[in-house]
Amino acid sequence: MSALRAIMDKMQYKNTTHPPLGQNIFHDEFVTSVYITPPTTDEKVSTMPDGLRMVLGIFLFVVFAVGIAGNLTVIWVFSRTRSLRTPHNVLIINLACSDLLMVFSMFPVMFISIAKNKWIMGEIGCDVYAFLGSLFGIASLCILTAIAYDRRCAICTTTDGSGTGSYRRVFFLTVVAWVYSFLWSVLPLSGKGAFVLEGYKLNCSFDYVTQTLENKLYVGFLFAGAFFIPMTIIMYSYTRVVLAVKQSRQSLLDMSKVKTTLVVRTFKIHKRQVKNFETAKIGMKLITMFVLSWGPYACVAFIGQFVSPTLVFPIIQLIPVVMAKSASVWNPIVYAISHRRFKRELRGIFLEKCCQGMPTVDETSATGSYTGEFFNDFNDLNCNDSKASTAV
Question: Domain containing 242: what range?
Fold first, then answer.
């Protein structure tokens, strides 16, 4: 019996995932080395099913085409239109540039890897790929944070409600966002954490599976510094914006009984605040789509590092990764649906290039109809006040 045990221990069950005879299956060292060791770039062939590869390849191609076209359109329209070249929209252009670089650097490599059923970039390529994905992903969230902070400053701190920002403030916020993102992304290249292949070994990201103190510290600080702190700033900023606009409207309602110069001035301030609030609502939609896209990936990484890495299967890793990378295409769609001036300018450019001779939307009339809604609200307040006085 002892001879059999010695032979079995010597063989070490090299072709199976069971522990050697007599070794506890729950031994930490064995579980770490066999069950939850992250894949390395030496493992060439992917185990992704063919059907899933085909579906994912088609999806990536569509998202790549939409992301390139959409973000280029945003950059082009905001850059060529003088009325849209405002300090606030500089942040919008930066966000579009970050999304464009994310799509351009991530999707072709992953698409080709899926087509060849193996990672094509090697170990150094894995580091570069993961670094760029981390840089542009964190940069997008930081720029969204800068947009929220800029809207709060514009609406809550200006005394006249004009909401005009300054290029100096926007330039400062932009530099801080990119430098902050670079610092978090470069840490794994300097030995604090690591970049590895994940899931079906067709995509590289930071290592959230290996159970080491260094990895836990990096992932924990990454969650706090690159996700929770920006989200807290965003929630606080937009909460202040909503409360400021609500308070302004309440002040207008209280003062509507007296027709004085102060009432007219208060109404103008409120009108400007509401106009800027429309811009802030676009930022709220952008951050909502960002959280919906990146939230599942953040949850998977948290589970893999702090709950149980054995719960993180390849398919569970794959779906959140694809959702996170597709966040780059939502911003142009939100602008096309919600941004009035962007839609008006894009329609005008399209009619000018493709349908010459056809009438375009008159910007003056559009602005007049937009502001007319607020004057109607002001008149309604006065009418209601008159009816109440008559009733008394």
Answer: 53-344
